[in-house]
Amino acid sequence: MTSTAGVPPVSTNDASGVKPRGRKLTGYWLILPGALWLLIFFVIPFYSLLASSLFDPDGSVLTGYEMTWHFGNYWDAFDQYKGQLWRSLWYAGIATIICLVVGYVLAYAIAFKAGRWKNLMLVLVIAPFFTSFLLRTLSWKLIFADDGWVVGFAQAVHLTDLLNIVGLTTTDDRLLATPFAVIAGLTYNFMPFMVLPLYASLEKVDLRLIEAAGDLYASPARGFFRVTFPLSLPGVVAGTLLTFIPAAGDYVNAQLLGSTNTKMIGNSIQSLFTTQLDYATAGALSVILMVIIVAAVMIYVRTAGTEDLV
Amino acid sequence: MAEVDRRTVLKGVGGLAFVGGSGLALKYAFNTDDQKQDPSQLVAKDVSESDKRLIFSNWPEYIDEDDGDYVSTLTQFEKDTGIDVKYTADVNDNNEFFAKVKNQLGSGTSSKRDLFALTDWMAARMIQVGWIQKLDAAKVPNLHANIIDSLAKPEWDPGRDYSAPWQSGLTGIAYNKAKVGEIKSFKELLTRKDLKGRISMLTEMRDTMGFLLMVNGGDPENFTDDEWQDALDLLKKARSDGQVRSFTGNEYVQDLASGNVLACEAWSGDIANAGDENLVWIPPEEGIMIWADNMLVPNLATHQDNAEAWINYYYEPEVAAKLAAYNSYICPVKGAQEAMQDVDPEQVENELIFPTDKTLSETHRFMALDEATMRNYEGDFADVTS
Amino acid sequence: MSHLDEAPSPQTPATSGPSRDLRLSQLTKEYASFTAVKSLDLVVPQGQFFALLGPSGCGKTTTLRMVAGLDVPTSGRISLGDTEITYEKPYRRPVNTVFQNYALFPHLSIAENVAFGLRRRGVKDTKQQVADMLELVELTSQAHKKPTQLSGGQQQRVALARALINKPEVLLLDEPLGALDLKLRRGMQLELKRIQTEVGLTFVHVTHDQEEAMTMADTVAVMNQGVIEQMGAPIELYENPRTTFVANFLGQSNLIAGEIEGREGDHVKVRVQGALASVPGDRAHSESGTGWLGIRPEKVLIAEAGEPIDAPGDVITGGYVTDVSFVGVSTQYLVRMPWGQELMVFEQNTGARAMLAVGTKVDISWRPEFAFLLDASQDAKAGIEEE
Fold first, then answer.
1. Is the pLDDT confidence value at C17 over 80?
2. Is residue A144 part of a domain?
3. What's the domain count of chain B?
């Protein structure tokens, strides 16, 4: 927003005379497309959201909404939907951790052990993107069907009992319409967003460093935690952010795989915006979610301290 | 030094301008207008004669289709009148469709449609805010002559001046008899242990809450705020106990057929259409909810004459019988039962199409709500279902 | 191929007790398509600075990696004193490596890099040792920087400190100076030697730079195609090479084909292009048939045809100068001999006589005690590095 952005300062008492004006403006012209893009796709929608979060809640779509600096919307929205908010962060958090553990093993295998299968494995990681997000999620509904063999198997090995004990299912005989199904859906759908950045940073790790760690008395496990893992931290940070942020705001998985007791904040926002047409609460809730996520990301990135890493 | 001062000042002024500009933008740029319109001011020039077309938005699986030798009612209409009908099944949900057209109709511009079908309460709402054109009674004589008595005088359009029912239907219970024992009442749905987590209910507030009011002994056509609250508590409890697996729109049929759901709140025609003999639809002991989907001509529709021809056509008993035989919903046209004799004799006694007066006397509509109450109730309901 | 008894051991082990020599026995490493190391036998006495010298691909790095435990031998044994470590995991061996590109941990500070090995072995208080070690390599002021902020030479010293702090029984250095520029390399050679003398550990240094090997090592083993061609003190290898490869790879040699006439007393007589030359018995590595008579360029004396030669020995006449390069301390001549071969002659610029011009007819001569005789079945060009 400041006038100096992107342009080198021009000395006013330059003895060589006045510089061509076009040259001075080049910097501005170059940032124009980016600035326009930002304005149209971020600034305006963001202001619109902010405005609607401060609408007078007595308004309606039919009678019109007026912005009255009604900050009470925030408290009302938070109070009413804190359950869904907390649940979203919780589900997204678990899904992110599972993605990290499973994705790390996968990315590690692709980066270091896959040999000539490397490219094929990478394609397989991306392959789910070739079909629609919605269709893939729906197909999990078939896989987890109450009468399907997956549930039968899970019952036979008492997985359903175990999940019930840890609270990831609500009854002991099914998988669909439980937190387990929602978290599984989130994990499945966002896994590539974890694997790809992890792979990218693991692939850059110099194998000689791992050898050096071994040479310096680090067992393979210690070498991993002292060298490989710290060096892959940029990938870990990128992967967890790319997984957690969309997962926390997701509503499709909860909608299709969950039940009424597993609704996430995305479902609430979607319902408020599209069926209840309560723009004030919907706007306030969206802003709350955004603030929580931005704050969490800032704390996380600062704690992880990735700026020192190569 | 002067340079620094100037910079500080510039920064300060810039910051203030930014904050002020943002405030102004927030205050004035994003407010929404009152969406109420005056339909008499929004009459488009009718081009029905020169441009023989009709654009109609309806719910899915709601009209018969050509099949071998069978000529659908739509094709017949096109043959008879020379009007090209653009029929689109893009109404999945009343609220969703409302959101789809609200920007145009609310701002007094054209929705690019000549006709669409919405459920009673939404039809009432749209008529109330002036988005719907009045039908010319002289051009729809069949409507006024043949509409069945129970649908002739809804309180929101007592003279059927603005609307014409496409089909009417009942909301009751469907269950999979191969997998679960007989179910008789809505209360069983909410309490039976063997149904825990295996039932679904509809996101249509009036259907679902109507039943809950009745389970508590109330009357959906006339209830108090306290009764509403009790019914809502009942729903909340069923939900938090894990009795209810999901709240759905039309897609409940798939879950019922696949066995994920054993029993559910269901619309009468859907189950007959599903063609699975294990799926049965029953009227619950507490009572039945009844509703109708109404054809409406929106403001600035350019083919109103064609729309009226269409409405008039579907109020011929023979045409109505053909349509009802296909989709198994309640036929709104008098004389169709007699006409059904020629179309499909087996359906003449089908209570789902031609309910007896006794059945009709057991049906309930949902109380008309003013806009503010409606929003409160819709909000309350959505808080439980989403 | 082991010539251990010839290897001098100038340094007595710093620690008492039983000897902890590094011993490789019939060590072999085979890959799918080639054999990197062929049945290698080698003993590195404790406390020695030992250099493995050879061109790239000769198997020296593979040998080193097997000692470090980073590669597993196909067969053979590696032991330290009485302890066999052939299949021991790298992190369980009392051996540390200074890697070719240092392999410093980029996410750790210099001090943390140096402390890495100690920490892994559970040493709680590493502060003092790290400080001492950084002092030794003169990097105390850089302790809190990250490796990427250091120059190449500094990184090299960090790598050294990181390995040395563990007081390994054997320190392996894999081309440690390869990435440095020439001037820095010379300085580091001296420093490495100083540090080795100071700490008294066994150093095994892998390099392809013959000058580096000779400057630093007590013993040099020249490796070629998976085997050790010759091993010994630098001066011995240089003065008395046993193979054409060593003769060419360590410095330069003139190799002249000749007929071996046989032993006469303690000398072997060789007929070279009509002239008769003699080679001391201990420098003749072939006693019959044809052979290569070898003589280092700086050992060849040169004079204008017919002029007297200082301290003449065996003389060949009839050559003429084809190329002269003046390199300051010396002048390098190429002399075409009557049979067509060009011989190299390096002459100190003592100023005794003017430089010879191209085309000058010359005689050459050398003292018989500087000549050596090699088996003619070998390639005369083996070990000459490609330009």
1. no
2. yes
3. 2
Are B227 and B317 in a shared domain? Answer: no
Is A110 in the same domain as A177? yes
Q: Quick one: tokens of C363?
A: 């005689």
Nearest CB neighbour to A60, from listed B95, B371, B384: B371
Q: How confident is the model at residue C15 (pLDDT cuts 50, 70, 90)?
A: very low
Contact flag B244-A60 (C-beta cutoff 8 Å): no
Q: ipTM score of the complex?
A: 0.80
Reduced 3-state DSSP string for A124-150:
HHHHHHHCCHHHHHHHHHHHCCCCCHH
Extract the tokens encoding B111: 């929705």
CB atoms within 10 A of CB C80: 23
Contact B31 A66 (CB under 8 A): yes
Interface test with A, best of B27, B32, B94, B375 (most A CBs within 10 A): B32
pLDDT at residue C188, as a whole number: 85
Mention every residue, 6+ apart, whose C-beta is less than 8 A from residue A121: A109, A110, A114
Structure tokens at C92: 């369980």
Q: Is residue B13 part of a domain?
A: no
Nearest-CA neighbor of B198 among B263, B247, B249, B253? Answer: B263
User: In terms of domains, do A178 and A288 share one?
Assistant: yes
**B375 contacts A61 by C-beta, under 8 angstroms:** no
Give partners of B (≥3 CB pairs < 8 A).
Answer: A
Residue B242: which of A2, A3, A171 has the nearest Cβ?
A171
Candidates B32, B98, B247; nearest CB to A260: B247
Residues of A in contact with B93 (CB under 8 A): 275
Q: How far is B33 from chain A (nearest CA, A)?
A: 4
Is some CB atom of chain A closer than 8 A to the CB atom of C122? no
Q: Are residues B250 and B212 in the same domain?
A: yes
Q: Quick check: A310 and C116 CB within 8 A?
A: no
Do B87 and B133 fall into the same domain? yes
For residue B27, give the chain A residue with the closest CA: A67
Do chain A and B touch: 3 or more Cβ pairs under 8 angstroms? yes
Query: Minimal Cα–Cα distance from B29 to chain A, Å?
Result: 8
Residues B299-342 have pLDDT tens digits of 999 999 999 999 999 999 999 999 999 888 999 999 999 999 99
**pLDDT (tens digit per residue) in A102-127:** 999 999 999 999 889 999 999 999 99
Task: State whether A50 and B129 contact (CB < 8 Å).
Answer: no
- pLDDT over 90 (residue C244): yes
pLDDT computed for residue C1 by the predictor:
38
B52-78 mean pLDDT: 92
Which domain, by its residues, includes B178?
Answer: 169-290+370-385
B52 with B177, same domain: the answer is: no
Distance between A203 CA and the closest CA of chain B, angstroms:
43
Residues B316, B260 share a domain: no
> Within a domain: residue A199?
yes
Q: How, if at all, do strands B279-282 and B163-176 pair?
A: antiparallel
Query: Is residue A67 in a domain?
Result: no
> For residue B142, is pLDDT > 90?
yes
Residue A120 lies in a domain: yes
Q: How close B52 gets to chain A, by Cα (Å)?
A: 33
**Which A positions 187-216 lie with beta carbon below 8 A of chain C?**
206, 208-209, 211-216
Asked if the model's pLDDT at residue B60 lies above 70, the reply is yes
Q: In chain C, what residues touch A308 (CB-CB under 8 Å)?
A: 107, 146
> What's the CA gap between C153 and A114, in Å, rounded?
36
- Identify the CATH assignment for C252-375 out of 1.10.3720.10, 2.40.50.100, 3.30.2290.10, 3.40.50.2000: 2.40.50.100
Number of folded domains in chain A?
2
How close C57 comes to chain A (CA, Å)?
19
In terms of C-beta density within 10 A (0-12 exposed, 13-18 middle, 19 or more buried), how is residue C385 classed?
A: exposed
Same domain for A173 and A35: no
CATH number, domain of B50, equals: 3.40.190.10
| Nearest-by-CA chain C residue for A234 | C107
Burial environment of residue C122 by CB neighbours within 10 A (0 to 12, 13 to 18, 19 or more):
exposed
